[in-house]
Amino acid sequence: MTRTVVESQSKTVVIGFDEPFCVIGERINPTGRKKLAAELEMDDFTTVEKDALEQVACGAMVLDINSGAVFSNKMEADPRYADNNFVEPMLMTALIEKVQAVVDVPLCIDSSVPGALENGLKAANGRPLLNSVTGEEERLELVLPLVKKYNVPVVAISNDDTGISEDPEVRFAVAKKIVERAADFGIPAHDIVVDPLVMPIGAMATAGQQVFALVRRLRAELGVNTTCGASNVSFGLPNRHGINAAFLPMAIGAGMTSAIMNPVRPQEMEAIRAANLLMNHDPHGMAWIRANREPTPEGEAPAGARAGREGRRRRRG
């Protein structure tokens, strides 16, 4: 059975066909977050630390760390800040150090810059997930040696030099190519987590059906775990969280084993917990029960505790 193991300093998370769905928190990403990018430019990591703590408290099992910030003001003083190959490696190290100081969960190191990926691998405790490699020849030659060198699993995104195909057959072929090239480097299939790419349902009516079929095929034919950027499916539509909350259990039912998503949204997290229960990935339903148990009023014992104590007193009498 395919098991992709990621680790922090003291915690292990297993992504697998018979494991609870792995929630990878997406919030530590300055792309499209002007306030966060401005804070990072001032070496202020307050929001990063807050996001790390909040995501873990809400159920994130792994945290994605993306260093794709643009430092507009610093560019004026130092032209090097216009170069992602300079900015991202430096920022990645700082982000990982700040996050690991406040939470102890495995990390997903996310960058398009190989130097940032390697800096992340050097700074991360345990065994992080590397995000990502694509089917482009140049990217394969740059990233797969890092995966082998540091013995880490990697997200494989199903696009190549021709871009993102709307044809699911092409996306499967790219994923297969990456798995085969990884094997040439001695990287096993269980350390490849394929992202088959979720298209926006508002632009492509069959986007959901395509990804469900791809997930089933990737599992059956390549034996790999899968992930996705879950919110892509609802892009441009109203009530995005409603769509995401329907999409995630359907993807889980098709065999998807993880997603990069926002765990702070209770509607989506509740849908995942219910799917875990229904897929028999929640032993004895304990995670569902814990999440939905009525809170104990202040000053009262938990349900059943008082009766147990009274029963013991009666027996002693």
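(ticket continues) Second input and output from the same batch:
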Amino acid sequence: MRLRIPPERLVVLAGVAAAMHVAKLSTALPVLRDALGVSLVQAGFLLSLVQLAGMLLGALVGLAADGLGLRRTLVAGLLLLSLASIAGGFATSAPALMGLRALEGLGFLLASMPAPSLIRRLVPAARVSAALGWWGAYMPLGTAGALLLGPAVIAASGWQGWWWALGASTAAMAAVVVRAVPADTAPPAHGAAAPQGPAPWAARLRRTLRASGPWLVAALFAAYSSQWLALVGFLPTVYQQAGLAAGLAGAATALVALVNMAGNIAAGRLLQRGVPAAVLLRIGFGVMALGGFIAFAPLPLQGPAAAGLRYAAALAFSMVGGLVPGTLFSLAVRLAPGEDTVSSTVGWMQQGSCVGQFAGPPLVAALASAVGGWQWSGGVTAACAGAGLVLTLPLAQRLARAAA
């Protein structure tokens, strides 16, 4: 029996399966700190090491995917994630787990980087912005799924069983993609007109990095991703330290992650209706600045009122902040310097996102360790949001020149 899910939605589901590996650590951190002696700063690096490959190789993998095939690259990433996760379940020390997290990062990069270009090939041009808005929701969906399922699986079979379960499910997702997503076609005709020479990919990379557009979307994504992963990644720990049970802390954080998809999907629809991208980015970063600060900062209120206000701020931070990635995935396609540099532009943006995700959690963890609590963590997220707001100024100028 053939699957009836549209292939572009299956690509999104594959991204969700990959994103669950990024988020699977959040619910396991309290257990890992006891089982493997993981410190708070090591926990920050465990959260961020999955971004190491993307931070170093994003643009190059984007270039390679065009030659290897977008679907083939996606499937290879899912299989690598599966193998690394299954091996991770056998780790007996924090350094071993860190090494396998870095390998998972390569799998995550291979799985997530070609997806926007693949979706672009699968849907009509009129639906690209909306479809990419759905793709922008893959991270919050995967994060929410991991936060909801993780506590129950860990309670039943330990953190090792959680790693093995995700490894098996990701392998199954790879099989679904092979069956239901159309196979890679021959390189498009514009490939014949690519710069000649022994290494045409180098010419495409130079064109990408000499243009301002790829740099802007990469920097904006770094400003967004650094604060989002830092807040969502540590919320289960924050809530458990405040006395919530693991399952309740995971469910509360899952909702924070899940509402992010609303902003992503809304961004795609608003862009299709003509709302300027810079406006959406400013709204997203502005609410993130305020919401992240309130979620962590000391408040004059006490008890349930303070907890409710902080949680509402975290929800607003994530939901309205979702406008940012939903907008940036569409901008990456528009601001690529040429048709043959879309994948490298998306890869460079992914590289910026990974830099932010690699830096944000350890920075927040180090600050929390230094001051003995989370009260100043909102200053880090607000600073990142402020950087994003500043970057919207040259972006608006760049878009205005392109429209003139």
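Agent notes: The domain at 7-180+200-403 is CATH 1.20.1250.20 (Growth Hormone; Chain: A;). Confidence is low (pLDDT under 50) at residues 187-199. Closing as not reproducible unless the customer responds.
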